């Protein structure tokens, strides 16, 4: 590859109390396989000179279609026993962004977020307005049954008559923040980020997290980095996490790793915010910090082998 610019990508499938004890060997293998498949999809696009934007969208679509992750097909149930999904995408070259929140029955929320960015004069659409826009743009819808998974339903049944909400977990002492996301830099040096989520089990009707909030859960800027977050959204919103990392790089001259570590391991932790993020800069450096026990994650830098991991090690 004569081109000095190297491409790189990273993805996540959620963070939280994810330990070897909490996953059977079969589940461990299924998650790793799904992460590898999504990485391969993004890698193929970037290797052929495709855009970072196309790569992150395709990766997230792959994760949304997999029932293992709390986004798209595997989304959790809210307090009313329905699914409300959020997603956002951002183009680091133009600072264009599109996001949707509280949508139901949309097969791939990230595709809808991309349509909002490309074909509306808006950044963020919600609920029925977003769904009507989706129909006008020919976005695929699915019936309620498509989004039904027994595990998510059982989680909700255990909580439905309480005021407790769960962070996508199965045991009361556990917390899993179910979000999927991808970041990439392409051969042209352009950055992009995409994030998608089903939110929290038994969350209040119409609750919105950090995922669709540009600068909180999702951000990309060619001058600095692309970031996608997963964690307790309320803390990520109050800390404007994704933009904070970009600012630390732009105004303080911190490296991607330094900025990411400072925000996740210091700033967020002090607030009580749990979770993690994935980030990539224009040079193809990758950072995947998290302050929880685990984070489904993977990365692939041009010329290197793909890496997939789940636990602290």
Would you write up a description of this structure?
The structure is a single chain. The chain is of the alpha+beta class and 313 residues long. The protein has helices at residues 25-47, 52-64, 109-119, 127-136, 150-157, 233-239, 241-252, 256-271; strands at 8-16, 85-91, 96-103, 124-126, 176-177, 179-185, 191-197, 218-220, 225-231, 275-281, 286-287, 294-301, 307-311. The protein is globular, with a radius of gyration of 18 Å. It contains 8 helices and 13 strands. The chain has one domain: Glutamine Phosphoribosylpyrophosphate, subunit 1, domain 1 (4-Layer Sandwich). Residues 168-173 have low confidence and may be disordered. A hairpin with a 4-residue loop joins strand 2 (85-91) and strand 3 (96-103). Keywords: Autocatalytic cleavage, Hydrolase, Protease. It holds the Pfam family Asparaginase_2. It comes from Rufibacter hautae.
List the helices and strands and how they pair.
Blueprint: E1 8-16, H1 25-47, H2 52-64, E2 85-91, E3 96-103, H3 109-119, E4 124-126, H4 127-136, H5 150-157, E5 176-177, E6 179-185, E7 191-197, E8 218-220, E9 225-231, H6 233-239, H7 241-252, H8 256-271, E10 275-281, E11 286-287, E12 294-301, E13 307-311
Parallel strand pairs: 3-4
Antiparallel strand pairs: 1-5, 1-6, 1-12, 2-3, 2-7, 6-7, 8-9, 9-10, 10-11, 12-13
């Amino acid at each position: 590859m004569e081109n000095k610019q190297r491409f790189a990508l990273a993805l996540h499938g959620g963070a939280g109390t994810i330990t070897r004890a909490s996953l059977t060997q079969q589940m461990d293998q299924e998650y790793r396989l799904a992460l590898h498949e999504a990485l391969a999809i993004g890698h193929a696009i970037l290797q052929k000179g495709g855009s970072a934007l196309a790569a992150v969208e395709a990766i997230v679509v792959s994760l949304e279609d997999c029932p293992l992750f709390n986004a798209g097909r595997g989304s959790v149930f809210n307090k009313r026993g329905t699914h409300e999904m959020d997603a956002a995408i951002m183009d680091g070259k133009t600072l264009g962004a599109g996001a949707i929140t509280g949508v139901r029955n949309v097969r791939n929320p990230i595709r809808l977020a991309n349509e909002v960015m490309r074909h509306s004069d808006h950044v963020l659409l919600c609920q029925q307005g977003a769904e009507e826009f989706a129909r006008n743009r020919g976005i695929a819808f699915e019936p309620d049954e498509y989004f039904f998974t027994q595990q998510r339903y059982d989680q909700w049944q255990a909580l439905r008559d309480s005021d407790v909400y769960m962070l996508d977990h199965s045991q009361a002492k556990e917390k899993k923040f179910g979000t999927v996301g991808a970041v990439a830099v392409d051969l042209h040096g352009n950055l992009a980020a995409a994030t998608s989520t089903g939110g929290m089990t038994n969350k209040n009707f119409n609750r919105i997290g950090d995922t669709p909030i540009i600068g909180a859960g999702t951000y990309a800027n060619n001058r600095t980095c692309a970031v996608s977050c997963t964690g307790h959204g309320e803390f990520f919103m109050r800390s404007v996490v994704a933009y904070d990392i970009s600012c630390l790089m732009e105004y303080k001259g911190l490296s991607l790793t330094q900025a990411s570590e400072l925000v996740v391991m210091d700033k967020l932790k002090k607030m009580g915010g749990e979770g993690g993020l994935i980030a990539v800069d224009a040079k193809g450096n990758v950072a995947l910090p998290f302050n929880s026990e685990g984070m489904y994650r993977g990365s692939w830098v041009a010329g290197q082998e793909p890496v997939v991991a789940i636990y602290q090690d």
